[in-house]
Amino acid sequence: MRVLNVPNTLTISRIVIIPVLITTILYQKYRYALYLFIAAALTDMFDGLAARITNQKTALGTFLDPLADKFLLVSSFVLFAVYGWIPKWLAIAVISRDIIVVIGWFLLYMITHTSRIEPVLTGKVAIAMQLIVLAYILLRINVSSLPPLPGPFLMLTAGVTIISGLQYIYKGFKITNAP
């Protein structure tokens, strides 16, 4: 199976978009930032779907896809929090969960030599909600008549993010048979 297939090309495209997205925000080209963010979010949706439909799952794709998600979300949440577009507590919740997941993955690999962790449903929901928050913020910057995101939606996003982090911790303990 070829490593540079359609799903992996989509994932690599997402990784390439990230520094361009950050640059457009830094230079206040918010319309381009919105388009790039939507393109990155769509590649996130379609890379896994394409891999399953075409039976082109690869070890590279399995490694790069969650890494691309982390880079996109963490860089966006940091930048959005610094600019005051999202509450800092939300950025802290998202980034903390990702740090915990990455450290947990590393420890799990060191202990069990297992590198594949199946995603949990709440993890997928959390990422979807995080992408919605970020896309809406960029949309609102471009369309000033849109209302701000409701606080309860931001709290729900943080809550689902935290719950998914706890589920990954639990899953890691189960895999290692830790008490």
Automatic annotation (TrEMBL):
<feature type="transmembrane region" description="Helical">
    <location>
        <begin position="12"/>
        <end position="28"/>
    </location>
</feature>
<feature type="transmembrane region" description="Helical">
    <location>
        <begin position="121"/>
        <end position="139"/>
    </location>
</feature>
<dbReference type="GO" id="GO:0046474">
    <property type="term" value="P:glycerophospholipid biosynthetic process"/>
</dbReference>
<feature type="transmembrane region" description="Helical">
    <location>
        <begin position="34"/>
        <end position="51"/>
    </location>
</feature>
<dbReference type="GO" id="GO:0008444">
    <property type="term" value="F:CDP-diacylglycerol-glycerol-3-phosphate 3-phosphatidyltransferase activity"/>
</dbReference>
<keyword id="KW-0808">Transferase</keyword>
<keyword id="KW-0594">Phospholipid biosynthesis</keyword>
<dbReference type="InterPro" id="IPR050324">
    <property type="entry name" value="CDP-alcohol_PTase-I"/>
</dbReference>
<protein>
    <recommendedName>
        <fullName>CDP-diacylglycerol--glycerol-3-phosphate 3-phosphatidyltransferase</fullName>
        <ecNumber>2.7.8.5</ecNumber>
    </recommendedName>
</protein>
<dbReference type="InterPro" id="IPR048254">
    <property type="entry name" value="CDP_ALCOHOL_P_TRANSF_CS"/>
</dbReference>
<keyword id="KW-0812">Transmembrane</keyword>
<dbReference type="InterPro" id="IPR000462">
    <property type="entry name" value="CDP-OH_P_trans"/>
</dbReference>
<dbReference type="InterPro" id="IPR004570">
    <property type="entry name" value="Phosphatidylglycerol_P_synth"/>
</dbReference>
<dbReference type="GO" id="GO:0016020">
    <property type="term" value="C:membrane"/>
</dbReference>
<dbReference type="InterPro" id="IPR043130">
    <property type="entry name" value="CDP-OH_PTrfase_TM_dom"/>
</dbReference>
<keyword id="KW-1208">Phospholipid metabolism</keyword>
<keyword id="KW-0443">Lipid metabolism</keyword>
<keyword id="KW-0472">Membrane</keyword>
<comment type="similarity">
    <text>Belongs to the CDP-alcohol phosphatidyltransferase class-I family.</text>
</comment>
<dbReference type="Pfam" id="PF01066">
    <property type="entry name" value="CDP-OH_P_transf"/>
</dbReference>
<keyword id="KW-1133">Transmembrane helix</keyword>
<comment type="pathway">
    <text>Phospholipid metabolism; phosphatidylglycerol biosynthesis; phosphatidylglycerol from CDP-diacylglycerol: step 1/2.</text>
</comment>
<feature type="transmembrane region" description="Helical">
    <location>
        <begin position="151"/>
        <end position="170"/>
    </location>
</feature>
<keyword id="KW-0444">Lipid biosynthesis</keyword>
